[in-house]
C-alpha cells in the first residue's frame, strides 16, 4: 500500500500543457499521505521524449534520487526538441526513506520561436473583394458597428496519402479565431488566442488534431473575428476600435507525422481561400450580427467547391512575436437556463438568468420564418419599471442580432462576443420562449478551482459566491474590470488587491504569470509601469497603488506559489519602478509623477491624503524589492532597497504620523496602509490601531475604504486584536458594507459601495459596474482569518503553514479547504455552548503551526488525547494554544466561551 502519493502534476503551473516553449520548464507535484507525520525525504524525476512513430521513447532526463522535500524542479536534461511530447514521472520516498508513491504526466513543446514559425504567414482578406459579398444595404449597422467587417472564413483543402500517426495544429490570430479540421472544432477554447500586449507578443496554442484527419482530402478552416486586435477595446473615445490593426489575420502550421516517420507541414499562405460568412460582425463590446439565411454548404469540410472564393492575401510574414500560450484558455464552463421568462407590454420578452454572468446566450428558436430578425439586448439589472437598465454599459451595445434561416428548430450562440449580464431582452422572438430556450453560457479563463469556503451565515456565503462570480466574469484572458461596459481593462491596482483572494479560490499561478508579461511590456522608458495591462489608450504612467502592482504581483506569486522564476524575471523591472519614484521624489515623499493618482479609489466619504497613500506604497514597493533581492541571492541589491525602504518609512513617520499615533488624514485606509506596511514606529502601533478601531466605531461599524484599503480592513483589525470589529464589518448590512449589496439581491460584487441605494437609486451611469472584483478582496480574509489558513511571514509556497482560525461574529461554524502547491490544507471549526472543535488537515512536509482558539489552553485535546501527548506545544496564550502539528488529519477540541464583543 502506498501512503505518500504525488498528485496534481503540473508543468509551468499547467496540467499537461501542449504548448511549452520554456527551455527549462518547471515540473511540480502536490503530496498527500494516508499516514500522519509523513513527508517526502527524496524524489526522482524521469522524462522521456515520446517518439511519434515506431522508434521507441528516449529518456532525456533522470535526476536520480535527490534527497529533498522540494516538490518542484526545473528541467535540466538534454535540450528539448520542438513539437515533441514528453512524458514525465516522479517517484517519492517517504519519511522512513522508503520508496513510496509515483505519478506521471506529460507536456508538449511548441514551435519554439523564432524559427519554428518560419514558412507560415499571417493571412487575411483582400478588402477589395469584400463588396462582392456584401449584401445590399442592410440596416444592421449602428453608429459603432458600421466600421466592423464580417468575420473572415478561411479554408484550405489538402490531401493526405494515409492516416497520420500524430498531427498537431499550431495556430494564432491577430484577432480571435476558431479553427476546425473537416468541420470539427480543434478544441473547446474560446476567444483564442486571448488578449496580450500584441505589440510585444501574440500567443499561440497547439492542438492535437490526429483523430480529426483522415486519408484523402482534408480541410483546415478558421473563422476569424476582430477581437481585441481590430475591434472595440476599452473606452478611448478617440478610436473607433482598431487599436492594433485594421483587420484580423490568421496564422497556422499543421504538422502531420505518418507511421513510417515521414513528416508533412502545411502553413497559412496565399493558397488559402477566403470569404465572409454569415457573421456580419462580431465584436467583444458591441455584439454580433448573424444572418443564418446564408447557406452553410459545408464550407469547412471536404467536397465544398471554393473555386469562387478569392485567395487570401498575406498580411505579414513577421511571426517573431508569436509566443506559446502561458495560461489556461477561456472556455464555456457552465450553462444556466433562464429562471424566469416574462413577456412585456411592448412585445419584448425579458429572460432572467438569476445570476449576473459574463458570456452569451444560447437561444433556441422554433418555427420562425426565414428572415425573421431577433434582437438580443443584455443588461445587468432592470430599471424601476421592469425594462432593461443599459445606461451603465456606456458605449458598449451588447446587442446580438440573429436573422432566422427558417429551419424548424434553430439554435443560435454568438461566437466572438461576450457580455456582462443577468437579463436578456428579446425582440422579434416568435412567441414566448421556454426557460430552457434561453441559456446563459458562462465564459472565463478556465483556471482550476482550488478553494472552498462555507460557514453558518447564508449572507456571508452569498458574499463568497458573489466574489467568485466576480472572479469568473472578470478573468477572461486577462484580469479586467467591468465586463459589461466599454472598458474591460486590466487595471493594475484591482489585480494586486484581489490576487490573494483569487488565489484562494483558484489556481491562478499561470494566469497571472501570463498577465505579468503584459505588465512588464507596458513599462515605459522612465521605469513607470502603466495603469492598465495590456497597455492601451490614453492612460499613461501608473498611479500609486496601480503601478506598484508591477512589484506586488510577482512578489505575491512567489509567496503563494513559490514561483521564484517570475520574481527573477520581473526583478530588473521592479527596481526600475522604484528608481523611477525615487528619481522624481528625492525627499522620499511621493508627490511627483503620480500619474492620474486615483487615491483610495471609490472610498466612501473618507479621502486619504494623496501623499500619505503614495508614500506608503513607495515604502512598500522598496521593501518588496529588497525582499525579492534576498530571495534571489542578490545581497547588494537587498541592502540597497532595504535601506531605501527604511528611509521612506522614516520620512513617512516624520511627516505623517503624529506623536499620538494619528496618521495624517485620519482615515481607515491611512491607518491600514501605515499599519500593514510597517510605517508606524513600533511604540505608536497600538495607538494607531486604536484610532483605526475608533474610526470604525465612530462610523457605527461601517467601512469607508475604497479599492486601496478594502483588502486590509479585516486582516489588520484581526492582527490588532480587534477580530470583533472585523466581524462587525463583515456582518454589517447597512450602507456602506459588503452585505448591503447582498441584501439588495446582488449576485456579484459591485464596483461601488453605492452602485444602487434605496434613496439615490443608481449611481452615475458614467461609471457603475455591478460586476467588479476589487471590493471583493475581503475574500482572502474568509480563508485566512475566519478559517485561518495561512503561512508564516517568511514562508513561500506554504512551506510553513499556519492555521489560526478566528471564531467570532455570528458564526457558529466555518470551514475552508485549499489546494496549495504543497498539497491540500483544510480548517473547519464549530462551536457548541462551551466547546470548540477544530478539524485540520496538514499536507505532508513540515509540521504546521496551529493556533487552537480556546478560553482554557489546558483543556485542549488532540484526537481525544491531551495535547502534549500528540503534538509539540509551542506556547499557551490567553485565548489559544499554539502547537506544531505534523501532517495528517487532526481534531482539536477545547473549552470555549465566546469572549468577543457582541455584534451590534
Ligand atoms: C475605473 C474602474 C477601475 C479602476 C479605475 C481607476 O475605471 O473602477 O477598476 O481601477 O477606475
UniProtKB/TrEMBL annotation:
Domain Alpha-L-rhamnosidase C-terminal, chain residue ranges per copy: 792-858
Enzyme nomenclature, EC number: 3.2.1.40
Domain Alpha-L-rhamnosidase six-hairpin glycosidase per the UniProt entry, residue ranges: 450-784
Alpha-L-rhamnosidase concanavalin-like domain location: 344-444
Keywords attached to this entry: Hydrolase
GO molecular function: alpha-L-rhamnosidase activity
Segments forming domain Bacterial alpha-L-rhamnosidase N-terminal: 163-333
GO biological process, one term: carbohydrate metabolic process
Enzyme class, UniProt record, top EC level: hydrolase
Pfam families in the record: Bac_rhamnosid, Bac_rhamnosid6H, Bac_rhamnosid_C, Bac_rhamnosid_N, Ig_Rha78A_N
Catalytic activity reported: Hydrolysis of terminal non-reducing alpha-L-rhamnose residues in alpha-L-rhamnosides
Protein name as it appears in the record: alpha-L-rhamnosidase
Annotated source species: Actinoallomurus iriomotensis
Amino acid at each position: 500500500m502506498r501512503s505518500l502519493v504525488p498528485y496534481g502534476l503540473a508543468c509551468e503551473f499547467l496540467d499537461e500543457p501542449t504548448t511549452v516553449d520554456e527551455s527549462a520548464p518547471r515540473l511540480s507535484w502536490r503530496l498527500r499521505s494516508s499516514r500522519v507525520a509523513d513527508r517526502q525525504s527524496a524524489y526522482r524525476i524521469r522524462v522521456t521524449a515520446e517518439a511519434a512513430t515506431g522508434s521507441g521513447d528516449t529518456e532525456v532526463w533522470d535526476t536520480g534520487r535527490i534527497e529533498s522535500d522540494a516538490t518542484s524542479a526545473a528541467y535540466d536534461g538534454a535540450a528539448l526538441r520542438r513539437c515533441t511530447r514528453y512524458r514525465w514521472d516522479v517517484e517519492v520516498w517517504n519519511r522512513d526513506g522508503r520508496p513510496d508513491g509515483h505519478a506521471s504526466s506529460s507536456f508538449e513543446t511548441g514551435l519554439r520561436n523564432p524559427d519554428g514559425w518560419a514558412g507560415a504567414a499571417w493571412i487575411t482578406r483582400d478588402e477589395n473583394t469584400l463588396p462582392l459579398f456584401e449584401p445590399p444595404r442592410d440596416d444592421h449597422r449602428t453608429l459603432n458597428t458600421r466600421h466592423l467587417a464580417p468575420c473572415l472564413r478561411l479554408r484550405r483543402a489538402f490531401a493526405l496519402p494515409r492516416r497520420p500517426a500524430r498531427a498537431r495544429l499550431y495556430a494564432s490570430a491577430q484577432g480571435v479565431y476558431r479553427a476546425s479540421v473537416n468541420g470539427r472544432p480543434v478544441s473547446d477554447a474560446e476567444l483564442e488566442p486571448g488578449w496580450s500586449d500584441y505589440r510585444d507578443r501574440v500567443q499561440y496554442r497547439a492542438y492535437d488534431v490526429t483523430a480529426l484527419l483522415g486519408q484523402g482530402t482534408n480541410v483546415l478552416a478558421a473563422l476569424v473575428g476582430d477581437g481585441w486586435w481590430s475591434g472595440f477595446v476599452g473606452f478611448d473615445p478617440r478610436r473607433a476600435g482598431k487599436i492594433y490593426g485594421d483587420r484580423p489575420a490568421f496564422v497556422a502550421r499543421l504538422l502531420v507525422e505518418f507511421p513510417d516517420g515521414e513528416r508533412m507541414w502545411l502553413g497559412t499562405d496565399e493558397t488559402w481561400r477566403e470569404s465572409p460568412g454569415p457573421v456580419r460582425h462580431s465584436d467583444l463590446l458591441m455584439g454580433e450580427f448573424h444572418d443564418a439565411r446564408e447557406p452553410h454548404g459545408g464550407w469547412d469540410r471536404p467536397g465544398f467547391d471554393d473555386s469562387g472564393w478569392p485567395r487570401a492575401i498575406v498580411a505579414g510574414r513577421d511571426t517573431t512575436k508569436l509566443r506559446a500560450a502561458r495560461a489556461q484558455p477561456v472556455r464555456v464552463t457552465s450553462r444556466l437556463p433562464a429562471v424566469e421568462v416574462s413577456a412585456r407590454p411592448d412585445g419584448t420578452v425579458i429572460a432572467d438568468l438569476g445570476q449576473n454572468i459574463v458570456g452569451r446566450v444560447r437561444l433556441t428558436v422554433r418555427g420562425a420564418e426565414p428572415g425573421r430578425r431577433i434582437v438580443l439586448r443584455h443588461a445587468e439589472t432592470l430599471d424601476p419599471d421592469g425594462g432593461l437598465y443599459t445606461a451603465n454599459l456606456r458605449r458598449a451595445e451588447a446587442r446580438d442580432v440573429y436573422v432566422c434561416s427558417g429551419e424548424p428548430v434553430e439554435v443560435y450562440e454568438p461566437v466572438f462576443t461576450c457580455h456582462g449580464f443577468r437579463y436578456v431582452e428579446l425582440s422579434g422572438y416568435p412567441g414566448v420562449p421556454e426557460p430552457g430556450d434561453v441559456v446563459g453560457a458562462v465564459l472565463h479563463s478556465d483556471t482550476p478551482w482550488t478553494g472552498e469556503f462555507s460557514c453558518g451565515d447564508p449572507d456571508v456565503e452569498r458574499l463568497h459566491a458573489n466574489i467568485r462570480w466576480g472572479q469568473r466574469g472578470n478573468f477572461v484572458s486577462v484580469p479586467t474590470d467591468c465586463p459589461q461596459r466599454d472598458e474591460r481593462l486590466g487595471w493594475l491596482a484591482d489585480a494586486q488587491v484581489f490576487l490573494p483572494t483569487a488565489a484562494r479560490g483558484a489556481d491562478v499561478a499561470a494566469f497571472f504569470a501570463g498577465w505579468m508579461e503584459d505588465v512588464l511590456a507596458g513599462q515605459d522608458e522612465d521605469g513607470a509601469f502603466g495603469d492598465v495591462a495590456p497597455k492601451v489608450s490614453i492612460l499613461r504612467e501608473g498611479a500609486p497603488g496601480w503601478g506598484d502592482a508591477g512589484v506586488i504581483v510577482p512578489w505575491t506569486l512567489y509567496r503563494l506559489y513559490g514561483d521564484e522564476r517570475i520574481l527573477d524575471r520581473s526583478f530588473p523591472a521592479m527596481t526600475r519602478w522604484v528608481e523611477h519614484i525615487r528619481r522624481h521624489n528625492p525627499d522620499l515623499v511621493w508627490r511627483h509623477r503620480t500619474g492620474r493618482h486615483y487615491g483610495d479609489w471609490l472610498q466612501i466619504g473618507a479621502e486619504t491624503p494623496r501623499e500619505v497613500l503614495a508614500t506608503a506604497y513607495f515604502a512598500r514597493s522598496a521593501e518588496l524589492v529588497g525582499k525579492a533581492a534576498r530571495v534571489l541571492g542578490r545581497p547588494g541589491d537587498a541592502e540597497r532597497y532595504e535601506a531605501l525602504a527604511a528611509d521612506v518609512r522614516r520620512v513617512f513617520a516624520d511627516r505623517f504620523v503624529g506623536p499620538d499615533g494619528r496618521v495624517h488624514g485620519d482615515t481607515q485606509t491611512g491607518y491600514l496602509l501605515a499599519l500593514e506596511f510597517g510605517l508606524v514606529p513600533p511604540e505608536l502601533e497600538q495607538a494607531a490601531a486604536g484610532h483605526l478601531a475608533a474610526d470604525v466605531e465612530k462610523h457605527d461599524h461601517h467601512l469607508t475604504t475604497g479599492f486601496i484599503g478594502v483588502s486590509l480592513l479585516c486582516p489588520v483589525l484581526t492582527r490588532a486584536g480587534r477580530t470583533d470589529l472585523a466581524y462587525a464589518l463583515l456582518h454589517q448590512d447597512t450602507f456602506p458594507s459588503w452585505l448591503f449589496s447582498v441584501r439588495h439581491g446582488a449576485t456579484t460584487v459591485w464596483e461601488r459601495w453605492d452602485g444602487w441605494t434605496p434613496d439615490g437609486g443608481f449611481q452615475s451611469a458614467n461609471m457603475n459596474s455591478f460586476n467588479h472584483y476589487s471590493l471583493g478582496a475581503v475574500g482572502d480574509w474568509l480563508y485566512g482569518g475566519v478559517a485561518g489558513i495561512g503561512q508564516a511571514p517568511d514562508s513561500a509556497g506554504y512551506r510553513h503553514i499556519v492555521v489560526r482560525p478566528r471564531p467570532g461574529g455570528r458564526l457558529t461554524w466555518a470551514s475552508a479547504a485549499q489546494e496549495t502547491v504543497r498539497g491540500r490544507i483544510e480548517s473547519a471549526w464549530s462551536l457548541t455552548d462551551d466547546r470548540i472543535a477544530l478539524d485540520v488537515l496538514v499536507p505532508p512536509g513540515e509540521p504546521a503551526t496551529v493556533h487552537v482558539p480556546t478560553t482554557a489552553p489546558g483543556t485542549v485535546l488532540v484526537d481525544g488525547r491531551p495535547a502534549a501527548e500528540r503534538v509539540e506545544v509551542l506556547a499557551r496564550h490567553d485565548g489559544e494554544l499554539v502547537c506544531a502539528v505534523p501532517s495528517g488529519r487532526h481534531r482539536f477540541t477545547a473549552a470555549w466561551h465566546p469572549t468577543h464583543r457582541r455584534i451590534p
